[in-house]
Design a protein that fits this description.
By secondary structure, this protein is mainly alpha-helical. The chain is built from eleven helices and five strands. It holds the Pfam family BTB.
């Protein structure tokens, strides 16, 4: 198969406005062009790589670490985990035994929530609902998945009402989520009568903590 580019003998040299033949055939000057760099970017490449890595998880031979939680095993890749979790980044980049271990056991980690976090790491997708938000946020806090922590925090703030604001406040405080507990506290102050009515004055947090002086002295109770 012949080359699409002319060889040295067929090139022409421009001299004094005229073309001088060097080989068997002269090429018109209009056909000789400088070729600039051509930058190409495949927009779907990053997503395709992630999807490919997700498929590779099904083959333990192609994973470089296996996480173990609650008796379940999760083959995965150190690099993907380190990119999504400060916890795993520190574990795999530091001088810890886990940095080179083939299996890493995660104690007191819910396997269902861990599976959701791993799926998110590989796909960027997660479904949060009332049934899984607390365990998912708890595990995300344990393993330092900041994006999931923020998404769960936003979900809790959006779902807040008179029936759950006390529990959300307590949950936010116990898991280091000040934006959640602060939102719940503000909601309680603004809707105290509705909250007390819905819960029949059965407060799950210490009364001295929940009720500011202005509410008590103002005769709200």
């Amino acid at each position: 198969m012949s080359s699409p580019f002319p060889d040295r003998d067929t090139l022409t040299t421009l001299h004094s406005g005229s073309a001088h033949r060097q080989g068997p055939a002269a090429i018109p000057s209009a056909m000789v062009r400088n070729v600039d760099d051509f930058d190409f970017c495949l927009p779907s490449h990053a997503q395709s790589v992630l999807e490919g890595l997700q498929r590779l998880r099904a083959n333990p031979k192609l994973a470089d670490v296996t996480l173990v939680a609650g008796g379940r095993e999760f083959p995965c890749h150190r690099g993907v985990l380190a990119l999504c979790s400060h916890y795993f980044h520190a574990m795999f980049s530091g001088d810890f035994a886990e940095s080179i271990a083939a299996r890493v056991e995660l104690k007191e980690v819910d396997p269902g929530a861990l599976e959701m976090l791993l799926d998110f790491a590989y796909t960027g997708k997660v479904t949060i609902n009332q049934g899984n938000v607390e365990e998912l946020m708890r595990t995300a806090s344990q393993l330092h998945f900041p994006t999931i922590q923020k998404v769960c925090s936003r979900y809790l703030r959006q779902q807040m009402d008179a029936t759950n604001c006390l529990g959300i406040c307590e949950f936010g405080e116990s898991h280091g989520c000040p934006e959640v507990s602060s939102k719940a506290w503000s909601f309680l102050q603004e809707n105290f009568e509705a909250v007390s009515h819905m819960l029949y004055l059965t407060l799950r947090l210490p009364q001295s903590h929940l009720l500011p002086n202005d509410l008590v002295s103002g005769g709200t109770l």
